[in-house]
Design a protein that fits this description.
Layout lengths: L5 E2 L6 H21 L2 H20 L2 E2 L10 H26 L6 H27 L4 H13 L5 H12 L15 H26 L9 H47 L6 E2 L2 E2 L13 H6 L6 H6 L23 H8 L2 H19 L16 H11 L14
Parallel strand pairs: 1-2
Antiparallel strand pairs: 3-4
Helix pairs in contact: 1-2, 1-3, 1-4, 2-4, 3-4, 3-5, 3-8, 4-5, 4-8, 5-8, 6-7, 7-8, 8-11
Length: 396
């Protein structure tokens, strides 16, 4: 497509992932009691500094070698998942409780925490729900449930990965659809589709799944989170928790909107083509990639859902479509439909000119058959001892 960024010879090191994700959370935690510059640092880092650095130092990073040790990466995920649960409680107290923060500082705490939840905690929880390790999987469920979007743990793995880039996936944005139209459709659509997929999986297991229904976990976790919010700061604490969750949820859906906007799997002989690298938009910018745990390398994640985030590869821009902006900047642009359309339509048209991209008729194109190896993996996953804990092994 185009050579958008110069590429470094080195992959993102673990220290960069760690600092980029942990520092803003530390600033927020300190700022909850100290206020002042700590909250400004956290807010500006999440809202502007990452984007500015990516624009001033516009280079991508190399792919990590296969087989690299990822124990430190998993430890960071667990730490970020736990931090998300604790930070939501700290922020609720700092904003709605008896902290000494001024109105402006409370507002900074609200905005900074919401951005961190959407841009760091969400990618961490996303990685956790793709792990076969049962405690890690359940931690990811807990983070999404605390943010009141627990169903994402089911809808993402069981629906989005299987049906991405078709109208059978509520989280794949259609060309010309504004983010606000998409959000109304995608939230309820993903809730319903995830529930249907879980029910079908449990029906196929013939009683083989003995753990509670995942949706009971999601709803129960959300209720527990709201009780904690009331315990921390009463009705105002409940309101603040709802605001933090809404802020994070909007960012979750923004990233899906941007990363699949207008891309569709072709229909070949009446059947939907398999998922390929060409069905996700990628971004290559180094700091936002570190902050979002390589989530901008989205094509490779869909091709290899269980590949740990440090090992995700960035396809060449003539193999998979690539955005010229950092992902957080693209998500901000998506909030302004006229600007978004003016900037995205030329990129989409250029990609289709180079590669072609047939549109799937709504609700009519059947899903592509899974390869034999994938079908075998699905069968094994359906009998996993963890409720719903089958890493996505859908067709790629």
């Amino acid at each position: 497509m185009m050579d958008i960024l110069k590429k470094s010879a080195r992959p993102v090191p673990m220290i960069a992932f760690t600092l980029a994700t942990v520092l803003p959370a530390a600033f927020l935690a300190i700022g909850a009691s100290q206020g002042g510059m700590w909250l400004w640092l956290a807010f500006l880092y999440m809202a502007a500094i990452t984007i500015v650095v990516d624009q001033v130092l516009p280079f991508g990073t190399a792919d990590a070698p296969e087989g690299q040790e990822v124990l430190a990466a998993d430890n960071l995920l667990v730490g970020l998942g736990a931090a998300a649960l604790v930070l939501m409680m700290i922020a609720t107290w700092a904003i709605a409780g008896s902290s000494s923060l001024s109105f402006i500082e409370r507002l900074l705490m609200l905005l900074g925490t919401g951005l961190w939840l959407g841009q760091v905690a969400h990618p961490a929880a996303h990685e956790l729900i793709h792990r076969t390790n049962k405690p890690m999987f359940h931690l990811g469920q807990a983070v999404y449930s605390a943010m009141l979007v627990g169903h994402h743990a089911s809808a993402h793995r069981l629906v989005h990965h299987r049906h991405v880039a078709t109208d059978q996936d509520p989280n794949s944005a259609r060309e010309g659809e504004t983010f606000y139209q998409y959000l109304q459709r995608a939230w309820k659509g993903s809730f319903d589709a995830g529930l249907k997929a879980e029910n079908e999986m449990r029906a196929r297991s013939n009683g083989g799944l003995t753990d509670p229904h995942p949706y009971l976990i999601y709803i129960g976790g959300a209720v527990l989170a709201l009780i904690v919010a009331i315990w921390i700061a009463g009705v105002l604490g409940l309101f603040v928790w709802l605001l933090l969750s809404a802020h994070a949820t909007v960012q979750i859906f923004l990233s899906d909107y941007v990363q699949h906007y207008g891309l569709r799997r072709a229909v070949q002989d009446g059947r939907t083509a398999p998922v390929g690298l060409e069905h996700s938009w990628n971004t290559a910018h180094w700091l936002s990639s570190a902050t979002m745990l390589n989530a901008p390398r989205h094509s490779d994640h869909h091709a290899n859902p269980t590949r740990p985030y440090p090992l995700l590869r960035l396809p060449a821009p003539d193999v998979a479509p690539q955005l010229p902006w950092p992902l957080p900047m693209a998500c901000t642009m998506a909030l302004f439909p006229t600007t978004w359309k003016a900037r995205m339509e030329p990129l989409l048209a250029r990609w289709r000119t180079l590669h072609g991209n047939a549109t799937v008729p709504p609700e009519t194109a059947p899903d592509s058959p899974a390869p034999a190896a994938t079908m075998a993996a699905d069968t094994a996953a359906d009998t996993s001892p963890a409720a719903g804990n089958h890493d996505d092994v859908t067709p790629t």
